[in-house]
C-alpha cells in the first residue's frame, strides 16, 4: 500500500532555532517528492520538489534532502521565524497514467517567541 | 501569474441547497484537480480533469458534480450534501496531468453543511 509517514506529528521550537522534519515513504512507482507548507484553512504551497536523482534542494531557509535508497526525506528549517508556524506536508508523486499525489499526514510546527 | 483562485472562500449551505464552487487559473495548465480535506487530515483526491475532460473520479458520491467549461475554469456543483461533507475543498492545477509537473493549489473553500 502506498504510504507516506511523517514525524514528529507536532513540534514546538523557539524563534531563531533550527529544526528538522522527517518523512518516510513506500510509494511505487516513484516520480518525485515534494514538501508543502500549509497554513490552517489555506491551500498547500510548494517549498521543494526533488526527483530520484536529487539529494538536496534548498529554497531560502528551507533545505530538503532525499535518500532514494532508504526512501527517506527530511526538511530542515534554519533560523525559524514566527511565520514558519504551519503544517509541513511531505507528498510523493506517483505516475499511474496521471499524477497521483500521496500525502503524508503532516508535521504541525509552532514557532514560539 | 502562478495563482489558482477559488471562490467563495467560505460557504454555508443547507442540506437541500444547490451551490457551486469555482476555481480559475491562467497559467495555461491543462490538468485541474478537486481535493477534499477534513481537519488535521491530508487532502483526498476527488476528480482529475485532463484537457477539459474528466479522467478520474475517485468514487465520489453523485451529490458532487464537477464541470470544466474551459481550460481555465473548474466548477464543483453541490446538491443535497450531508453535514459530513463539511470540509476544506481545494482546487489544484498542473501543466499536464503527468507526475513530473508541479501542482499549484488554491486557497480553498471552507464549506459548512448545516
3D architecture notes:
The complex is a heterodimer of chains A (113) and B (114). Chain A is mainly beta and 113 residues long. Chain A contains no helices and eleven strands. Chain A has strands at residues 3-7, 10-14, 19-26, 32-38, 45-51, 56-59, 62-67, 72-77, 86-95, 99-103, 107-112. In chain A, strands 2, 4, 5, 9, 10 and 11 form a six-stranded mixed beta sheet that branches. Chain A has a five-stranded antiparallel beta sheet with strand order 1-3-8-7-6, with no helix packed on it. The termini of chain A are far apart. The mean pLDDT of chain A is 94. With 114 residues, chain B is an all-beta fold. Chain B has strands at residues 4-7, 10-13, 18-25, 31-37, 44-50, 53-57, 64-70, 73-79, 87-94, 103-105, 109-113. In chain B, strands 2, 4, 5, 6, 9, 10 and 11 form a seven-stranded mixed beta sheet that branches. Chain B has a four-stranded antiparallel beta sheet with strand order 1-3-8-7, with no helix packed on it. Chain B is globular and about 40 Å long. The model of chain B has no long low-confidence stretch (mean pLDDT 94). Chains A and B meet through strand 4, strand 5, strand 9 and strand 10 of A and strand 5, strand 9 and strand 10 of B.
Secondary-structure element order of chain B, as H and E?
A: EEEEEEEEEEE
Distance between the termini of chain A: 41 Å
Major β-sheet profile of chain A: 6 strands, mixed
For the residues shown, what is the average pLDDT of chain A?
94
Helix content of chain A: under 10%
Write down the Rg of chain A.
Answer: 14 Å
Structural class of chain B: mainly beta
Number of strands of chain B: 11
Low-pLDDT runs of chain B:
none
Beta-strand residue percentage of chain A: over 45%
Q: How many β-strand runs of chain A?
A: 11
Stretches of chain A where pLDDT falls below 50 for ≥5 residues? none
How many DSSP helices of chain B? 0
Number of helices of chain A: 0
Largest interface: chains, residues each = A-B, 25 and 29 residues
Secondary-structure element order of chain A, N to C: EEEEEEEEEEE
Structural class of chain A: mainly beta
Strand content of chain B: over 45%
